[in-house]
Amino acid sequence: MTQNEKISIEKKLELYSIARDLFNSGKSFPQVLELLSESCSKEEAEYIAQKGLDEEWDKLYEKAKNLFGEGKTYAEVVDNLRINEKDEELISYVANRWYELKSIEVESIIDGNRNVTDGLLWVVIGGIGVVAVFYFNASIFNKIIWSIAFVGAAAQYFFGRLQNSNAKRINKLMKKDERD
Questions:
Q1: Are 75 and 55 found together in one domain?
Q2: Nearest CA-CA partner of 37 in 24, 28, 47, 25
Q3: Does 91 share its domain with 152?
C-alpha cells in the first residue's frame, strides 16, 4: 500500500479491532504501531492505534446507539458524534449502522401491527369458512381453498407477532444502558 493511498472504512475498523486486541493482550504502543504500519501509512497507523488504546470507537458506537435509542434524528446523531470524532467516514458508517437498525424497528412496528390485525381478521373469516365447507360437505376444491386461506392467515398473524417481538428486542437493545 502506498503512503498516499487512503484505506477503506472496513480496513480502518479491522485495524482498530486488531490494535484494541493487541493493547488488551499487553502490547505496547510502539509494538502496535509497528504492526499497523505494515497495512497503512504511519499517520493512519498512529491515529488508529491511539483510538484503539483508548477504545474510542467502541465508545462512539455506543454513543450512537444511545442517541438513536433516545429518539434523536440521524442529523442530530451525526452532529453529536462530530464532537468526539473527526473522521467523517467513520461517523457516517457508525450512524448508518444504527440508523438501519432503527429503520428495521420502525418497519417492524408498522408492518407487525398490520399483519397481526389482518391475520387475525382472516383467521376468523377462514375459520368460519373452513367450518362451513366441512359442515355443508362442499367440494374438495372448496375445502382446500378455505383451508389454505386459513393457514395463510394464521401464518400472517404469527409473522406479525414475530415482527412485533423483533421491534421490542431492537428497542430494548437501543435503550440498554452501558452498565447492563
A1: yes
A2: 47
A3: no
